[in-house]
Every structure is written in C-alpha cells, then in structure tokens.
Write a structure and sequence with these properties.
It contains 7 helices and 7 strands; from the N terminus they run H-H-E-H-E-H-E-E-H-E-H-H-E-E. By secondary structure, the protein is an alpha/beta fold. It has a 7-stranded mixed beta sheet, with helices on both faces. It is globular and about 45 Å long.
Length: about 200
C-alpha cells in the first residue's frame, strides 16, 4: 500500500536518502536561486519543503540574505536540519496550514508542490499569507506531464499523492492565484529527460 509523502520522506531521512536528493537537486536549485536573487539587495527567504535544510544553509551564507527559514512536514528531516544548523529557523509543519510570523521577499521550493492533492490551494496560500507585495515564488519540479521518464515515480517510490500536471497547468495555477509576470523554463534537459521545470511569479 502507498504511503503519504511525509511518511515516505521521513523514512528517507532515516536511511540517508536526503543526501542523494540534495546532490541530485543542487545544480537546478543553484540556477533557480541565482535567477531569483540577482536583483535583490536584501531579502528574507523561506524554503517550502526544505528536507534536511541544505538550501537554507547554503543561502544563509549570502550577505544579502537577512533571514532564512525552512519548513517541512517530516520531523526526521527537520530534526536533521536543526542538528546541522543552530542559526537559522526550521519548522515542522504542514505547508498548507503554516503561516510565517513575518512575510518574506522570496519563497523557494524544489520537488514539493506535486505532493499536494490541490496544489493551487498551496500556491494561493503562499501568495496570500507568506509573501510581501512584489515578492517572488520560485518552484522547481522534475515530476510533470512533459517529463515522461518521471511518470513511473509514484510506483517506484510508493508515494500516495503525486499530482501529474503539465507546464501550462502549473502556470495557470500561478496566474489564477494572483501571481504576475508568471514565467517558466527548463533546466538540465538531456536525452529522455525534459529537465527541471521552473515556474515563477511575482505577487
Ligand atoms: C522530494 S523532497 C524535497 C526536499 C528538498 N526540497 C530538497 O530538494 O532536498 C519533498 C519534501 O517535501 C516534504 N513535504 C511533502 N508534503 C509536505 C507537506 N504537506 N507539508 C510539508 N512538507 C511536505 C517532504 O517531507 C520532503 O522533505
């Protein structure tokens, strides 16, 4: 029987598979973040579905980053993040319910949004409750309709909620949630691999 995403990722954290994700995602994430931060002088940052917190630790080394926060529903992931980093903030919460104390300039997320039954609800929640006016949401995903190689992941991973959506549908969700300047592109295309789909927009 398939398991809920957070349950599966807690098992991954226990067996060290979070490090594999970190390595696999780093090159796409680095490109996403250099795009998202290029015009920012000072910014506050949240990683939605931060796993072991590696992106929070990376970005907090940048002198323009004034605060970095990670949120994840897996206690095992958050415990690892806190063990590795006592400076930045980490919260073990369901993204769909959590609201930050202070709105931020940049929300980033890698390989998380399709683990929600109603991803548009999450996008709208982040738009309305996490971001300042003029702030950016940037999301990267490898599991999507055009990337055929990813289609067997629900079977391979045994995760119960994985919404397979097209690039256009994701863009529409951003636009319908109130985001402006919605843009998408792919990073790291190769044979039999469409690359990481990046979607971004400004509140
Ligand atoms: C594929 S992992 C990606 C982790 C991290 N972004 C990275 O690149 O290493 C997906 C993460 O989303 C988290 N997640 C899934 N559903 C969630 C939810 N409803 N609330 C909070 N976190 C969730 C999982 O616990 C997991 O750590």
């Amino acid at each position: 029987m398939k398991k809920l995403p957070v349950k599966v990722f807690s098992e991954w954290a226990k067996t060290g598979k979070d490090i594999g994700m970190q390595k696999g995602h780093k090159s796409s994430v680095d490109k996403m973040l250099s795009y998202a931060t290029k015009d920012l002088k000072q910014y506050s940052f949240i990683d939605a579905g931060c796993g072991n917190g590696w992106v929070v630790r990376d970005i907090s080394n940048s002198k323009e980053c004034i605060s970095a926060t990670g949120v994840d529903g897996s206690l095992e992931m958050i415990n690892k993040a806190k063990y590795l980093d006592s400076v930045n903030s980490y919260f073990c919460e369901d993204l769909i319910k959590w609201i930050p104390k202070n709105k931020v300039n940049l929300v980033h997320s890698m390989e998380v949004f399709y683990y929600f039954k109603n991803p548009m609800k999450l996008i709208k929640h982040i738009h309305d409750n996490w971001l300042k006016k003029g702030a950016r949401l940037i999301v990267g995903m490898d599991f999507y309709e055009e990337n055929k190689t990813s289609h067997n992941w629900p079977e391979k991973t045994g995760v119960s909620i994985m919404e397979l959506l097209s690039e256009n549908t994701w863009k529409k969700y951003f636009e319908n949630s109130g985001f402006k300047n919605v843009n998408s592109w792919k990073i790291g295309e190769k044979e039999n691999w469409e690359g990481t789909l990046v979607i971004t927009g400004i509140k």
